[in-house]
Amino acid sequence: MSESPRIHEHMAARSASGSRKGATVSLIVLHSDPQPAADALASYAAPGATTAPHYYIDAAGAITQLVEEARAARHSGRATWNKRRRNIDPISIGVTLEHTPGTVVPAEQFEALQSLIGRLKSTYKLDDAAVQRWEDALPGLSTADGVLTPADLPPPIAHPTSVRGPVVLSDDDVPFDEGTICGGTQGSGPAVLSDDDHHMR
């Protein structure tokens, strides 16, 4: 997809991000949030909010920027990546989808995700391996730690404007399942640990 995605601005509270402290962006981390888009965006922009992604993509494919890329959005906190446990917020761009785990990602939303990721990969000179999805380290428990796994996105759709309905992977019409792109959900979220360990699933 050659065209740059259309992006709306709805900036999160300053408390939902921090300094990158000189770190360079080396990851794009995908999350899912089952809340309705209006509720999710309102929570990120609320005074005193402590978590937010850089970008949010609603089910219709509208992209909203919440945090400047120059700042470290508090979207993940500590996670295991490359066998190392660390706070990945300073080295990542966080992207959240309006999505309930186990349901099909709408084509319009997936196209918007591909377009945004393409732009980010070009800007920061990242390869496919840099696109990771967040998974809870201990599913079902309120934990501030997670694990990053490859997102393994399908290739770009040749004619995105002609696609309607669920995204498919092959001629067998297999729906593109959410599990391929983003793992743990985010809702009320776990307790905040510290300025360096804010976490949003």
TrEMBL record:
One of its GO terms (biological process) is cell wall organization. Its EC number is 3.5.1.28. Pfam families: Amidase_2 (PF01510). It catalyses: Hydrolyzes the link between N-acetylmuramoyl residues and L-amino acid residues in certain cell-wall glycopeptides. The keyword Cell wall biogenesis/degradation applies. Residues 177-201 are annotated as: Disordered. This is N-acetylmuramoyl-L-alanine amidase. It comes from Kouleothrix aurantiaca.
